[in-house]
Amino acid sequence: MRVLAVVGSPEPGGKSAAAAASVLVGARRQGADTELVELAGRDYNDEVQAAVERADGIVFAAPVYRARAASPLKTFLDRLPRGMWGESNAPLRGKACAIVLTGATLHHFLALDELRGVLASFFAAQVLSPGLYMHSEAFTEAKELSPEWSDLAAAHGAALVDLAKAVRDSKALSGLRPLA
């Protein structure tokens, strides 16, 4: 079982990366091999897409700016093939995904819904609900998660592994595709 975290923050090593790393802790406790990739300063490349293809579960993490996930994650998803209209592969189709968004206040937690819709409807991924939105009070001054939030993130990592196993073992779940 492989779980990949893709961090779509414009800056490396921030709160979104810390939150994604905590989700991976829970996945490792369930026996998964994990990897974290930060998109900051990186052009879209085949290496990241290949890592998504190899993964059984993917954590998408990003800060929220103006009620949407930051542009590096959106740009990555805009360029990721879906297996439609002549595309030869669909790295997210039938994969288990989790969402971790970070922001300054609680006001932007509904950004989870937009990203969930893109992953589920546009890519035909199976998205773990409810998703995580971590506002500034979830972090210490050192940009680490408080114990309560760290435990919650790890629980999502464990749940993602369970979801990935269920999706992998179900021809019906893993065989769904985007409608258009």
Describe the structure.
There is one protein chain. With 180 residues, this protein is of the alpha/beta class. It has a single domain, classed as Rossmann fold (3-Layer(aba) Sandwich), CATH 3.40.50.360. Helix content is 40%, strand content 21%. It is built from six helices and seven strands; from the N terminus they run E-H-E-H-E-E-H-E-H-E-E-H-H. Strands 1, 2, 3, 4, 5, 6 and 7 form a seven-stranded mixed β-sheet that branches. Strand 1 (2-7), helix 1 (15-29) and strand 2 form a beta-alpha-beta unit. Helix 1 packs across helix 5 (147-169). The longest helix is centred in the C-terminal third of the chain and has 23 residues, at 147-169. It starts with a strand and ends in a 6-residue tail after the last helix. The model has no long low-confidence stretch (mean pLDDT 91).
Quick rundown:
The chain has 180 residues and is of the alpha/beta class. Helix content is 40%, strand content 21%. The protein has a single domain, classed as 3-Layer(aba) Sandwich (Rossmann fold).
SSE blueprint:
Elements: E1 2-7, H1 15-29, E2 33-38, H2 46-54, E3 57-65, E4 68-69, H3 71-79, E5 96-103, H4 111-122, E6 126-127, E7 132-135, H5 147-169, H6 171-174
Parallel strand pairs: 1-2, 1-3, 3-5, 5-6, 5-7
Antiparallel strand pairs: 3-4
Helix pairs in contact: 1-5
Please mark out the parts with pLDDT under 50 across 5 or more consecutive residues, or reply none.
none
CATH fold topology: Rossmann fold
SS field, number of helical segments: 6
**Name of the CATH first level:** Alpha Beta
Query: How does the overall form come out from the CA principal axes?
Result: globular
| Beta-strand content estimate | 15-25%
How many structural domains can be distinguished in the coordinates?
Answer: 1
